[in-house]
UniProtKB/TrEMBL annotation:
Gene3D superfamilies: Aldehyde Dehydrogenase, Chain A, domain 1, Aldehyde Dehydrogenase, Chain A, domain 2
Record carries keyword NAD: no
Domain Aldehyde dehydrogenase per the UniProt entry, residue ranges: 6-265
Key words of the record: Oxidoreductase
PANTHER family, per the entry: ALDEHYDE DEHYDROGENASE-RELATED
UniProt protein name: Aldehyde dehydrogenase family protein
């Protein structure tokens, strides 16, 4: 931040703007939220390219697509929602629910989504009459700064306080920590360290957990369709998406056939033990943290660093794991287009291995199931400690909301207590509201007979 503006002053400005905005009409709140989404939609090419270039991660085209799709989906999902005044009348219980804003919301922005995450947070916040302050990632300072300028300029054209949207001008752990402690609420989308800091800020916080999406292919599905969908999810934005498929479990008698389908749809299958070890060592050097040099690179670029000659049109590098869970680091989350495969004997065994991988990393996030047997889908949902089960779709492009399913459109994915989060499911505008409940007496009431409770 510049020396002339302290974090405290920034928060004071944000709270003052929010107080002016707290009693606007539903139409005005909608106007502000729509403006936020439309700015990103209209400037998708500029913002998408800038995000890829500044962060040096991900696909330009996929980021452009993400800007357009997320802005449209999020606005469509909230535009008819009531967030001002009485939002619900529970006639059978003689109660009313009245929506109230939270205040000034501090939003910690990840390097993986420096445009659509602040857009999503701001749209939800303004829809519910809050203000937002962004703490950008060090690799996306200029991108976030431009976005804030765009948001503020658009709000000004409608006569709304520009300070409803603010951002830290410089990035430091100290400033981010101070912001979280002074704001009314914190939304933290980022790494485990930042999320933990948010929960330690002393303010109500909504954080996310780590992804490591496990995928299982049932015996009754079309292998080619499943392979294609898995590769779409794994390769989108060069594998940066936390919803991207990480490990796919395939029936053992269909494994070789599935590999051929993977190759057909753009997967580069690594067969020799020596090359598999190159992938393992290249992604997780010495079995430690992921190699930062390959985060967000496409398959060809990642292959060069790993030591493989991967064709330019490859969607993902695909390898068979040697073990499950902690016995093979390839079962961990990989923020690049590398997909792990593993055969299973029966469906229950496959699900058990998914559970073991989730216990190793990614518990609480998501799984993908390719199956035409509802009982198998439900079995996986019951056995796996996850917040989302994406069925017969590319998890990486649909688990955060899509026209193909009913998941709430969002960029922030809670993982429940399994992932040390305060909520499970997809973050929505509903998380940005306080609710006042009004209770009238029943027209007829009686003291309950305690004995009747046990009948």
């Amino acid at each position: 931040m510049s020396e002339s503006i302290t974090v405290k002053e920034l928060v004071e400005r944000s709270k003052a703007a929010q107080e002016q905005f707290a009693f606007v009409t539903q139409e005005q709140a909608d106007e502000a939220a729509r403006a936020i989404c439309k700015v990103v939609y209209d400037n998708a090419e500029t913002l998408g390219v800038m995000a890829a270039e500044e962060t040096r991660m991900g696909s330009r085209q996929d980021k452009i697509t993400k800007c357009r799709m997320k802005s449209s989906l999020i606005w469509q999902s909230i535009k008819n929602e009531k967030t001002v005044g009485v939002i619900n009348r529970l006639e059978d219980r003689k109660m009313l629910e009245v929506a109230k804003p939270l205040g000034a919301v501090a939003c910690i922005i990840p390097s993986t989504n420096p445009v659509v995450t602040p857009m999503c947070n701001a749209a939800f916040a303004l829809k519910t009459r809050n203000s937002v302050i962004f703490a950008p990632h060090p690799r996306a300072v200029e991108c976030t700064k431009l976005l804030v300028e765009m948001f503020r300029a658009e709000l000004a054209t409608f006569g709304f306080p520009e300070d409803l949207v603010l951002g830290l001008e410089e990035v430091s752990i100290e400033d981010s920590s101070e912001l979280m402690s002074l704001a009314d609420v914190v939304v933290a989308t980022g790494g485990p360290g930042m999320v933990k800091a948010a929960y330690s800020s002393g303010k109500p916080s909504l954080g996310v957990g780590q992804g490591n999406v496990q995928c299982i292919v049932d015996r009754d599905v079309d292998l080619s369709e499943a392979a294609e969908k898995i590769l779409i999810g794994r390769s989108f934005d060069n594998g940066l998406i936390c919803l991207g498929e990480q490990t796919a479990f395939v029936p053992e008698e269909k494994f070789a056939n599935f590999v051929e389908k993977i190759k057909k749809h753009g997967g580069y299958y690594v067969e020799s033990p020596e090359q598999v070890e190159k992938v393992r060592a290249g992604v997780f050097p010495n079995g430690g943290p992921m190699n930062r040099e390959i985060v967000g690179l496409d398959a060809e670029q990642a292959g060069k660093i790993i030591g493989l000659e991967v064709p330019a049109d490859t969607k993902a590098i695909v390898v068979k794991a040697d073990g499950i869970g902690s016995t093979d680091v390839l079962c961990r989350e990989k923020l690049c287009p590398v997909l792990t495969l593993y055969p299973y004997k029966d469906f229950e065994d496959g699900v058990a291995m998914m559970v073991e991988n989730l216990d190793y990393e990614g518990k609480g996030h998501s799984i993908a199931v390719h199956s035409n047997t509802p009982e198998h889908v439900e079995y996986a949902a019951i056995q796996c400690a996850v917040s989302r089960v994406i069925v017969n779709q590319p998890a990486g492009t649909t688990g955060g909301g899509s026209p193909t399913n009913g998941f709430v459109a969002t960029t922030t994915l809670g993982c429940g207590s399994w992932g040390n989060n305060s909520f499970s499911g997809n973050l929505s505008h509903k998380h940005f509201m306080n609710i006042t409940r009004v209770g009238y007496p029943y027209e007829e009431s009686y003291l309950p007979d305690p004995e009747m409770a046990w009948e």
